[in-house]
Amino acid sequence: MNEVYRTFIEKFNVPENLRNHLQIIFNREEAILLNYLNDKEENIPNLINKFPELTPKLIESLYKKGYLIRKLEKGTFYYMSNTFDQILKRFVNHDLKFQKLSSEIKAKFQEYIMEIYLQKMKDSKKPVYRVIPIEKTIPDKRQLIPYYQAIHYLKKASILALIDCICRTTHQKCEKPRRVCLALGDQAKFFIEREIGEEINVEKGLEILNIAEENGLVHSIDNKEEPSFLCNCCECCCVFVQGLKKYGIFTSIGKSGFIAIQNSESCDDCGICVEKCIFEAISYTEGKIQFNENKCFGCGHCAYHCPQNAIKLIQKK
To answer: How far apart are alpha carbons 200 and 10 in whole angstroms?
Structure first.
């Protein structure tokens, strides 16, 4: 292996199963720059002076890929390397080279990214993501304080960007729509500046939410006061749903604060709600629909898709 890549492995603590695949992500010149900027900040003139073989175009290219981050100081941009975890996520999600890899090599990258998220969930003291209910499924709108509304976060964000779903792009386990996730505020600027996100307005954001609802995708946000993402999640690709269902990590995704209630008189036991519930809170037992309140995350998909309008969401104390 080239000495430049060996240095990168040491500086960025690259896991063993990915060490032989670094050349896929970046070339030797890019690796030299990433190594140098691993523990320092530098502007373009000084970088070109130190490494004459580098060009401003290459530096800007690494920034747009998300491999470099930069800050503005007294009118000058200073660059430094992103973490290997972030470099890897940007490569998998936004570089066409990843899509052309064999399934076997893709799996190595996918497994490591899943490990990154699983560790984040395990380390967190509260749910990393939180479900937001479908507003149309809540009959008493007086219950809907802003904290529970997707539109609240869309209107509050200084800027919105439409991006590909990171989880479905990474894991590719279903045919659900990919370009249905929304980045908010500074995170939106990150994607727009790198030309991998499309700036949109609130009305377009609401259209995206409708598309998600029609396709059985669950609205969720990163669980903090100023969220960076409003995602639309499926059960097969979403790392946070998988963290809960497959790995039993209860700090992966939090409930919306609502639960689904069935009107048994209106219900004809068609079973559509069983199919739509990704959290397995509804079952079909002895010819009857059964709801498990403890498993319900209050996303509202059962109510949204119920042909008999026999289900509604109510706020849970």
So the answer is: 41
